[in-house]
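Quick start: read one record
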Amino acid sequence: MSPTPAQLLRATALALALLLAAPAAAAAAPPPAAAAPFPALALEVARDKGAAKCPDAAALQKRVVGRLARNPFEAGASRKVQVSFAKKKKVFSARLVIDPPPGSAKVGARDLISAKACDELADAVAIAIALTLGPELDAPLVARPRRPLDPTSGTARVVRREGPDEAKPAKPKLRWYLHAGLGAGFGLTPGPSMVARVGAGAGIAGWRATLSLVGDFLGRKDVDGVRVEGTIVAGELELCRDLHPVELCAVLLAGDSAFSGDGLTTPEPSSVGWVSLGPRVNVIWASNPSVALLFTADLDFPFVRTRFRVEDEVVWRTPVAAGTFTLGARIPL
């Protein structure tokens, strides 16, 4: 049965009424509740003296924003993300502490380390922050892997390949120096004597070698009214192991000893060769980088032993061992 003209007119009017009423109803309906904004966090970064080149707060924030594609940080926010960079024995480390979200009491904390540089460590910290905050922000993590990470037991260890520009350990340097000292000798000559020493040397990797000129003077002794005197001038080779502030050394002396005295008959001639070998201990006190005080004590075992005779009577002979003590200075070049 076909609709009548009157029925078609009523249907058309009803459709127009519904179309006109829809915008008004939508405008009158209450707006949907806005989603509660995610509380911002304050990013705080601390760096010790050895980690001064690690990223600051602004640089680390940029890395995190690059991972999340949004900025979750706001200065002065009560909830904090705290990062502490440190360096100990050429190893960088970071301590990451994130305050818990509202309604939770569990604080998130992680330790991360890098054995080579702080750049990779900063990437690992940024990833850890993004992984922690991503679910709360409902923000997917932007994948930008740069280097492989090995997360184990809450620790992300950065694995870094050696490159051509990788810094290499500094090679030991040869260091030169001058030294001089004055002291006293016992047993080298007939009486206690004054010892003077001046020389130069070099050291590398805990070892040191020195060449010096040594003089032993004023070694006098009176025996039954007869005065005898000896003088030694010798070259000295010193080889030392540096155990700062102490050095343990072996010393070889070779030179000439000259003797004089009233009525001296032996030795003849009055000068003879002098050779000795013995240990030495140096104690160093570096008051400043340009000079160091040096206390030296050594024991000499002469290879050549001389007897003084006056009218065929022995008045003195070289002992089996002798010692010297000097105080001086060492100047690096």
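Confidence is low (pLDDT under 50) at residues 16-22, 32-36, 143-167.
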